[in-house]
Amino acid sequence: MSARTMSTTTTTSARPSSGGPKTAPSARKNGQPPHPSARPAFRPTASLTPYSKRLAARSALTATKAKEKEMKEAKETARVERVAAIKDKRARKAERERFERMAETMHRRRVERVRRREGRNRVLKS
């Protein structure tokens, strides 16, 4: 029996030196670092702030959103006005060129009469 215990003691004394690759004591056996420390328990903080403070913050947020919406609407109306001005300018230019082409073939007075008639028709349509 003593021989058995001796053989196990001699083998166990030789094993600790062959523990695998040398790593830091905080690392795992496979060499990876352990997970970070456990997260603290979830404790809701909503009830810690007073209701009046939360209400004030909420009203400030709605005021900010309303201001942003107003600014976006103003920006959009400015853009629509610019687009309308560009379209109007192009239409005037196209009409001027059309009358110039008419003037090449027709008499000046006839072109003026057509222009006046079209102006009256445009006023009646709108």
Polypeptide structure, described:
With 126 residues, this protein is an all-alpha fold. Helices cover 68% and strands 0% of the residues. It has helices spanning 2-14, 51-105, 108-125.
Averaging pLDDT over every residue, what do you get?
82
Indicate the percent of residues in helices: 55-70%
**Largest sheet data:** none
> Quaternary status of these chains?
single chain
Unreliable runs: none
- SSE order, one letter for each helix or strand: HHH
Shape: elongated
> Number of DSSP helices?
3
Please state roughly what percent of the residues sit in beta strands, choosing from under 5%, 5-15%, 15-25%, 25-35%, 35-45% or over 45%: under 5%
- Count of β-strands: 0
Terminal Cα separation, in Å? 119 Å
Short description:
This protein is an all-alpha fold. The protein is 68% helix and 0% strand. The mean pLDDT is 82.
Supply database-style keywords.
126 residues; mainly alpha; 3 helices
How are the elements arranged and paired?
Layout: H1 2-14, H2 51-105, H3 108-125
